[in-house]
Each structure stands twice: as C-alpha cells, then as structure tokens.
Amino acid sequence: MKAAKETGPAKEAKAARAAKATGAAKPVKAAKVAKTPKPAGSAKGAGSAASAKAAGSAKGSAASAASKAPTASKKASTAAAQAKPAKPAKPESRLAMVRRARRINRELAEVFPYAHPELDFRSPFELLVATVLSAQTTDLRVNQTTPALFAKYPTPEDLAAAVPEEVEELIRPTGFFRAKTKSIMGLAAALRDDFGGEVPGRLEDLVKLPGVGRKTAFVVLGNAFGVPGITVDTHFMRLVRRWRWTESEDPVKIEAEVATIFPKSEWTMLSHRVIFHGRRICHARKPACGACPITHLCPSYGEGETDPEKARKLLKYEMGGLPGQRLDPPPGYPGRPAPPLGANSG
After folding, report:
1. Which candidate, 58, 124, 242, 279, has a CA 20 to 30 Å from the CA of 40?
2. pLDDT digits (tens), the chain, 346 positions
C-alpha cells in the first residue's frame, strides 16, 4: 500500500530532525550566505579591507627592515669609524728631523749644483766691502755699484784716505749710504792700521771691524779663506724655520742649532744652497710651492702658490729664465749675467 504523501509541515519537521541528528543547521541557507557578496557601496567594509592590506604591508616592511638591520648597522659602524678624526701626528723626533734636514741639503745640492756667493769679488777685501754694502739691499745692486768704487779705491789704504762725500755718492744706490760709508771707511782704516792692509782670516778679528758681524765674517771666511761657516741672512732664517730645523728667531741661536745638524764640512755650501732656494723659489711673501722640488720634505707646503703653472711664474733669476745677480758669474752658472747699473735688465 502506497504511503501517504507528506504535507509541508510534516516535511519541515522531518528535515529539522535530520539536521539536528547530523549537526548541520540550515546548510542551504549558510551556503547561500557565503556566496553572497558584500554591498559594493559599504565604506566600512572597504576601509576594513584597506586597513588589513596596509597592516600587512607595514608588517612586511618592518620584517624586511629588521632583516636588513644587521647589515645597515655594520655599514654605519664602518662609516663612523672612517669619519672619526685622525689622531694627531706624533711630534717629529730629533733624529727624524736631522735625517729630513740632511736629505733636504742633498736634494738642494742636486737642484743647485752651481750654488755660489752672489757677490762679485776678486779679493778678500772686495768681498768684505761688498758684503757690508749688501745689508738692506740686493746683491745685484751691490754688484752694479762696486765696480766704480773699487776702480777708484782698490786697496784699504785708498779707501781709508778717501773723501767721505765722494764715497757716499758712489755707493748711494745701495741705500743707507752715509752709515755704510762710515763702516767701509772705518774697516779700511782698521785693516791699514791693525792688520797691515790685509783682511784677517779669523772670526774673532773680523767681528772687531766696523760694520762686520758674524754673518759678514762667515761670508768672508767661507768664500775667501775656505773656512767653514753658516751664513744666517734673512733667507736662511726664513727657510730653516719653515723647515722646522729651529724655532728660534735669534741669528746666533739659529747658527748654533743648525751647526749641530750638519757636519762642519757642509756649512758653507749649505748656506749657499739654502739662500739660493730662498731667493729663487721659497720667497718670503709668496713661496712658489707648486714649483718646489722638495715639497715632499717640507712641513710648510701650502703656505704659497700650489698651482704648478702659477707657481712657475713666481720663479726668479735663472729658474725663471731671468738674469742672475752677478755681472761676472763663475764658470758653470746656467743663467745670464746681470746687466751693469743703468742698463735694461730685461
């Protein structure tokens, strides 16, 4: 016998009992809700999604940064180490200074193998008078002045007996001509009266003569008698201080300090080389640093012009292609002789 068809209420009650038995509550409706999209116009929903995405992105960036942190920290540490100021250089030892000074002397000997006294002279007397006249002027001006002086007064006896006004007129171009006239006439008289008309070859005798100090005495001793001596003129004083050989400003102290650095046999030629370098390259106001051959040994490099082209224009005498200071230079001098007084020096 065919069962009776279940009515709507009975069918629903049966489905409810079945769902309860299996633990599924309204499966069809739940599935339908899962497939139903949220309204497109829901700002709250969009904002939640964007926030979630941003949070995820930020989390990813943070994780990435965290993973790179050790490398960045290492680079920062390296940069910081490199950025630390360099430790101040240790003061140069006495031994190191002496070695550097002697090397400067050797290299200047290669640069100026022809270094010589830049005063024209034919006798110790002429050199003595010329050296006294060279105070506060150039050797060139002295060399242009002394030919006429020595032509008229060739010996100490002649000069001692001269008329002061006539001597003043002859040496006027050298400056301070009245004081210099007194000095050279006085030393000429002393040579005549005390030394038989001859220039003495001892330091203690020379410094007793009017107008003669240690610098002048050493010029005469070193170049007329072959007695070693250090000539501390303005060029020498300037350079040895720039080179840190001494900190003294007193010529006698400078002479004594430099004398301890070099053997006695080097004193005279050392003086010529240093003075040559000071006159030609290492000038007082604007050193030609960019054209200097001993920059690698100079602690004062950079005080002057460092551009090579500009520095070359500052070079003087034969280094700059110009006439030297002597009208009668010695054999082997590479430059042009200086012109006589009144002539064009170009």
Report:
1. 58
2. 444 444 454 455 455 454 444 444 443 344 344 444 444 444 344 444 444 444 444 444 444 444 444 444 444 344 434 445 555 678 999 999 999 999 999 999 999 999 999 999 999 999 999 999 999 999 999 999 999 999 999 999 999 999 999 999 999 999 999 999 999 999 999 999 999 999 999 999 999 999 999 999 999 999 999 999 999 999 999 999 999 999 999 999 999 999 999 999 999 999 999 999 999 999 999 999 999 999 999 999 999 999 999 999 999 999 999 999 999 999 999 999 999 988 765 5
Which two three-digit tokens encode residue 79?
Answer: 């940069």
Q: Specify the pTM.
A: 0.74
Identify whether 233 is a catalytic site residue: yes
Question: Which one of the listed residues 53, 233, 313, 328 is annotated catalytic?
Answer: 233
d(CA 124, CA 291): 36
Integer Cα distance of 96 and 48 in angstroms: 77
Beta-carbon count within 10 A of 222 CB: 20
Q: How far is CA 138 from CA 80, 172, 250, 343, in A?
A: 56, 13, 22, 16
Alpha carbon separation from 139 to 90, 145, 180, 270 (Å, rounded): 41, 10, 15, 18
The residue from 20, 53, 215, 328 that is catalytic is 215
With both helix axes pointing from N to C terminus, report the angle between 214-224 and 251-259 in degrees, rounded to the nearest 10. 40
CB of 152 closer than 8 Å to CB of 170: yes
Q: Does residue 215 have an active-site annotation?
A: yes
- Using alpha carbons only, give the angle 273, 250, 179 rounded to the nearest 5 degrees: 85
